Amino acid sequence: MSQSAVVQAIANYGPISRASVAKLTGLSKQTISEIVGNLEADGWVRTVGQTEGHVGRRAVVYEIAPDAATVASVDLGGTKVRTALCDLTGRVLAEREEPTNQTGGMNVVEQVSRMVRATTSDSDFGDLKFVVVGVPGVPDVTTGAIRMAPNIYGIDQIDLANELNARLGVEVLVENDVNLAALGEHWMDGRADEDDLVFVSVGTGIGAGIVVDGNLMRGASGAAGEVGFLPFGADPFEAESLQVGALERVSATDAIIGQYQALSGKTLSVPDIFDAANKGDKEAEKTLDNVALQIARASAAIIAVLDPSLIVMGGSIGAREELMQRISRILEQCFPRSVSIQPSKLGAHAALAGGASIALSHLHMSLFAEGQKGAEIRVPPPAFEAFKAGVS
């Protein structure tokens, strides 16, 4: 417990002196000296100079040694796989991106393993210690299979975490990608005061990540936030609604393309439909109005149940300003309380940031708290612009 408290102080306030760590933790100077000495000898903290501007003897200051180990964050989507390697401060050291192997199953396992190893080889920092993988579905805690992930064939038939662990030789945690995006938005600079937020992602599908009191809400089976299955929009009792969700059938990519085609007789991509609406195309405008209506209804349901301080809109469709303006306007008409709706700050890299935050917290807890009940180490995020630059 003492060691975890010391690491938490150094991680959050470093560079910091031993005396300042003692004041923050309430531990004796002798205890601090022993712990910091051991951490320094093992390479987990390092000296970075001395205090300045104080009368009398100057004190040595310490920080977490960023190159002592690395973690990897993976965003596994139906069309793309992204991997990012981070140091112990969350700074991105290297990243890669490839189209997802469409044969699915074990071939995707091999692809992710290869990409993580290749990303690790791009850096001469410390050994890889932990991997977090974001997936477009719900990890089954019993079997390790990924449920509700129709865009990656065969991923519901394998224990993804164990298969990756066998190939990489490090602990692997698998989490829903929208949950990771919610954590990423909360972790990075600018969201620190928003301890109750909901990240709504609209793209190929629709889902939500829920952060309550600064912690991710997963639910009894890990499916909290599967808002695509809210029972409105389409008939929730139809067979298709049981596969992809009634709301998703009227609000995601295929729905937008289909609605516009039904109104205009023309087939356009979603970006082209947005462009057409911006140019005054009445059918395109009506299509976006219909989609915004459904997402506003979903947002009202979320607010009524969870009472968040903020809804963050993400995904290739959800973060579009044209859609958010419509959602905000409609929400004001159907819900009595105003709730801030903002676009994702991290965009396509929100899930990578969330994966990095979980990986670093797990690593710090395993290294420095050794599973002590009640211990907690929250790793502060890197500078917001530095993270975005690292993954671009």
TrEMBL record:
InterPro entries: ATPase_NBD, HTH_MarR-typ, ROK, WH-like_DNA-bd_sf, WH_DNA-bd_sf. SUPFAM superfamilies: Actin-like ATPase domain, Winged helix' DNA-binding domain. Pfam families: MarR_2, ROK. It comes from Ruegeria spongiae. Residues 3-48 form the HTH marR-type domain. Belongs to the ROK (NagC/XylR) family. This is ROK family transcriptional regulator.
